[in-house]
Fold these 4 entries.
Entry 1:
Amino acid sequence: MRFKFLLLLGILAFGGCSKDDVKPISKSGFVRISAQVDERVRLKAALVVDSYDVNITSKTDADFSYGKKVSEIGANPIELAVGDYTVKVSSPSVTLPDFGTPLYGVTQDFSVAAGATTSLSLVCKQTNAGVKVIYSDSFKKYCADNSIAYSTTIEQAGSSLSYASSESRVGYFNPGDVNVVVLVGDKEYASKLALVAQDLVNLTIDLAPEDPSKVVLTITGVDDVNTRDEKIVISLKPTTTETLKLSEDFASVTTGNSTDSDGSRSSWSGNENFPTVAKAYQAGGALKLGVDGTEGKIISKTLDLSANNGNVTVKVKVKGWTSVESDLKIKVGSVEKVVPYTAIMLNAFEEVTATFPGAGTATSTVTITSATKRLFVDEIRVFN
């Protein structure tokens, strides 16, 4: 997005003035300035050109300077001695970074010649760059389901803007590098982003669809000159500080199968890892939980999940019946979450992940439940 206005400077020589014009002195001319908004620009709000600053400096006379607002100049001519000059037009200055403040300006050299008329057409372009942070619906749902707070901070030259989860404004920065830090829970993910004047960058934070434990930052420039696409992938998988506290792959279950509706009729009575069961059936290296219309569940042995501030991650391989007819519920202590999945009986198992910040205690149990009807589970891992 860029805002423009047209600035016309007419350098009028003595011979071009009417009798009503101001009489120039020898070896001088006049600058007549008018400003207007370029009608080709689409504006969100009115652009007040009258508030812009006009500054003229001489290349040959270091002591000369001229500065006024556009509104102060109006249609009045400005008398200048013959020579070389620089004109700078700019919107009112703002300390950056700042929300909602695009800046515009242009600088151009010109000359005043005796007995000649010079006209300049100047287009003010955006001189800073905007960044808008967007959190995708899937990312927001993942964080909400797992009670994870999140925000983004963008820093430049010691100053920063913080984009909370509800922030929708555009933040503006000077051209150059910025540091982007995404805070997800208690973890920080840092990257750099190079900004160019006239950029308006949509920074979208999203979950990678092929891996629910990753976050993707998609950076898309919408300026017609500086368009670009970038991706930064952040992994939310258990870190090396998390310890595997329970692993069960049901390798000892040799009866039945999970590939047809008649292959899982034999009851399963539990094992050392999951001693408490209800409506659980053997399915050849896996379990079927539930029967038509009735939930099934398995409950783990008591686990000490108090380490790492009680933060717990549970991974389960799951697939449905001939269709997905039941939700998968995972419970750690008193905190229960519904975890979506799409795989069905004829598919391979799909691994899903649920995190439970602060839910673990020294005497926790983990419960895996088919909420209403039937589903299959395999390879359950609990990290703390």
Note: The mean pLDDT is 80.
Entry 2:
Amino acid sequence: MRRISTTTSSSSPEINNNDNNNNNNPHEEDMRRVVMVGKALRCIPPPPRPLSSDGEVAAALCHLRASDPQLSQVMDVHNPPTLQHLYPPFHSLARSILYQQLAYKAATSIYTRFLSLVGGESGVVPETVLALNLHQLRQIGVSGRKASYLHDLANKYKNGILSDEAIIAMDDRSLLSMLTMVKGIGTWSVHMFMIFSLHRPDVLPVGDLGVRKGVQILYGLDYLPRPSQMEQLCERWRPYRSVGAWYMWRLVESKGSPPPLPSSGPPLLLQHHPQEEEELQQQSHLLDATSIEGIPNLRR
């Protein structure tokens, strides 16, 4: 049982998360720690309970209100996150690649043609994607570079380096390491995938311009915090930094001022993956949208 209490009122609410099934195998947790990573079995920490689990969003709200009074004021005027599971991991990652660096309407048009090409949503699987040649993908508007990204992702599934089951079972650190091996997928893309597809509760997208701008507004900073500063500024949100990030997007949206791309200064994103520069450009397209609600592939 986990108990989370808050001191913001005289009667401290409590949120209890109990397993409804008392007949679980006592070794179930140990079994979940052994997953196939690449072509080898590895013992890794189990992933945290997703935010879509019963009671997790409520627990997150309670914790954030107690730990950050300034964030609590933002929470008073915005609805809590509503997270839905739409696609399996491979489908979500392929869709993310297709949407990169494109305006939402243009990307949706290409994605719709892509679905027709593979025979619908059920056809977005590695085998079908590998069967598509460059000419077929170019005909529906997919660039040669993105076609190579899609094929690299599908090949890593075919070769057993990745699988939907392994992705779901990995802890956050292992997942970041494995997915950034895929061409076209950098740290920011993995953070978005972990929050909006896997519903991981404690992901802080330190390189996201919207989250950084939200933190600047929240704490009244006269500078846009660097990724290296974000960890310290948002430390109090653990273990629910994903929900804190959600409210930063809401805060920036309500102010109606997406953060501009700076023309100079230090790099904005984490530097250990060559895809980050493209992802910075992708963020500029997303932040030009009139509303975060208009970006359902990432924000809803």
Note: The two ends are 30 Å apart (CA to CA).
Entry 3:
Amino acid sequence: MKIIDILKRITDYIEKHKWLINEKIPFTITLDQAFYSWYENVFFPQWHEMERTNILQKFRDKTPYDVYKMVSSEYFFLMEADRGVHYDKACYAVIARESKSIIAKFSAKMHLLSL
């Protein structure tokens, strides 16, 4: 995937985030405000958990963007059942399901049991 395609997708994420925020508040935020909100409330917390759980090392054959998408998808799936879910659970769920390492899968499943 080319960098321009990745940037376009990130812009799409931010525009969706802007739309969701504007649906909940009585005024309209700018795209700059939406970017800041997305970075602080979506991207950074997810990226922090991705680093903390070492998920990028578990999927060296994938780009960080691909792993980010995997965790995002899992997070939104988990949110349907539990609005209070955290990104660590999404990271461990992806590792438990997608990792090629039996040890990584087992470790992730143990983490999931403790959450």
Note: Residues 3-114 form one domain.
Entry 4:
Amino acid sequence: MELTAAASFASAWGTPTAAAAIILTAVVLGLTSAAAIQWPPRRERVLPNPLKTGLISRLPDGEELGSLVYQPDQFPGARDVETPYGSMRVYEFGPEDGHKVLLIHGISTSCVTLGRLAHGLVDRGCRVMLFDLFGRGFSDGVADLPHDARLYISQILLALASSPLPWTGSAPGLRVVGYSLGGGIAVHLANILPHLVSSLVLLAPAGLIRPETFGAVSRFIFSSGFVPERLVAVLTRRRLRQPIASSRRQRRAAAASPDAVGAAAAIAAEASDPPPGETASPLERRVLLYVQWMAEHHAGFVPAFMSCIRHAPLTGQHESWAKLAGRRAGSTVVMLAEADEIIDAEEYTREALPLVGGEDRVVWTVLPGGHDFVMTHAEDILRVLDGAWSVNA
């Protein structure tokens, strides 16, 4: 679900002729828009989350708020942490003396996608921490900095420091679970602070996705500089607001025409339909509806989404992955989904497994499900962790 929204963005164009027309129009608009209008405006540094704008409190009980999959009291131990970048939402719960596990979600949703894993880990005696990346859920958006690994690692350290318990520098170390974009961020965290991360778990991780997955049209729109930011934002928001049925049609079209796969659909995979032959669960459908709700009501969501496509560790991270080979054997766990429409399990196994040292150094597993297997196959993931962590406890 996390990485499929980027792929439907260009699939919405349809034919190559339509794509060419859009590119030509975008170039003309870009050249005539006076050095490109900045969006959001430069004067804005923090884009308030829905709690700050009062939107949540204004919704009548039982109306839209009650239907949202992600509520302000979704998990125990909620706190809003003020940072130089704006406020962020953090949750921390589980036995205080349990192994500490930090979970990092993906690009197009909030930490709600990792709820089943979090509760399963707490049931196993762990102390867990989840947080909303800037621009998602109940965290503010950051408008004046690129949404890259540096920003998100700073956010992680601020989240850890906000706890009354010691999360850094204490034995037996921190277990980090990163999903999709969160996996790409976790790789950088483990490389920068190897003494901090005792176990690195990567679930359908970004980082080695081929750029062509996002499509030529989307790469041009997001990266050329010719398309005004306001226009890119309008197109992105429109795509993220589309209903489930439209998402299904566009994913079929993308499968038939790989060059039309674009940034917005690829990233919405975190909240998309299940693989062929499987039925979408109520949770999957509600998470997709929540993505649409964020696109409409969270001022920081679309800018964060756009910035991540440009700056986040989604592609070309081979050098960072190669550094993982120096970690202690068994301390890195990689789980892929066999029907993942974005992270090709066979391709990752062929390309990434040798980079990280091979199966002698890494626990490498392919599980059932699609890109959103953190929701649909959480128990399978937890069973793998039971084995990996019992050996390396």
Note: The longest strand covers residues 86-93.
